[in-house]
Amino acid sequence: MNFKLTTWKGGLGLLSLLFVAPTAVAHSWVEQLMVIAPNGTFVGSPGYSRGNVLRSDPGYSDTKMQYLVPDGRNEVLPSDLLCKNTQQQQVQSEGSPRLQASAGAAIALRYQENGHVTQPGNQLGKPENRGTVYVYGTTEPKEGEKIMDVHKVWNKKGTGGDKRGVLLATRNFDDGRCYQVNGDKISTQRQSEFPHTADQLMGVNLWCQSDIALPSNALSGKPYTLYWVWDWPTLPNVDPNLPKGKQEIYTTCIDVDVVASAGTQSHVAASYVQDQSLNSAAIPAQLADIFGSGAPPSSVHGGSMASSNPGPAVPISSEAVTKTSRAWSSPTVAVTPTSPVRDPIAPQKGVTVTTFITVTKSVFPESFASASPQ
């Protein structure tokens, strides 16, 4: 993929990577994880996958992070591994620490669309939602994990396969907002509908995300493993070169440090803040999907998806949310939409989501960023 370095004028003198004539041959992986505050804003310090290689690292290339299953074949075999060879063990690279989050926390797994969303015509026979992302979780990962032992085997109840893990969420690869800047119709429409200020991380592009919740009973002091699996098949009888279609799956293997939350808890309602900076905002419909039918999943190894009904929401002001941003713990009860939530692949502008959250003192350290919109 060709690119040029562009200097953006402004107080910070940010540098951005402006991709020119993208060919959508670069594929995607989880570049960064963030904790999501109850008002829908990313807070705290970012986390990264096992064996992460930052784009700023010397010798960086896409091949050091992307992992394709199957590689060189059209069908997955029982011997195919779930994790890239550099992600088989629970080891972090220097400068790419694990995300730290409390049990039940909502978190965003962020990735680049690399033209797969905004230039869908570059690949024949691909699904309209640009494929489906499956996020699995376990406290019992193993080296040499086979993809066929996990993918479409582990389920939400934790009763699938060897019962070591659970399906936390499924998401469209296209989150309805993200884009790579190019001259094609989808990109130009989204640039207009979802503008953002270019920053040093994303440049002029807007990254995609898979928003999920950690299990509410995940044990503090022990890593919780996430398997991000992007299933992006070629459908049969569309591409003349692939009359039987093709399986094409990309994965990222991630560990999250589950940290304890302390203090007296009480239920408070808070609204998703509208018109906040999209540089650090979750997807409203995905948050509604996480908590809309009850509490975050209570399963660690598997087990049931806990549900509770705390009663009607009483939204508080965004000012109140801002003042107490450092005291938020993870959402642990419910999210209920106050206006209809559109399909996850549709634009999300104008959606209001009300969340029930738990307030606790000393959950986030003082170094965590404010949850107020930027």
From TrEMBL:
Keywords: Signal. It holds the Pfam family DUF7492. Residues 298-317 are annotated as: Disordered. Residues 1-26 form the signal peptide. Residues 25-283 form the DUF7492 domain. InterPro entries: DUF7492. It comes from the Eukaryota. This is DUF7492 domain-containing protein.
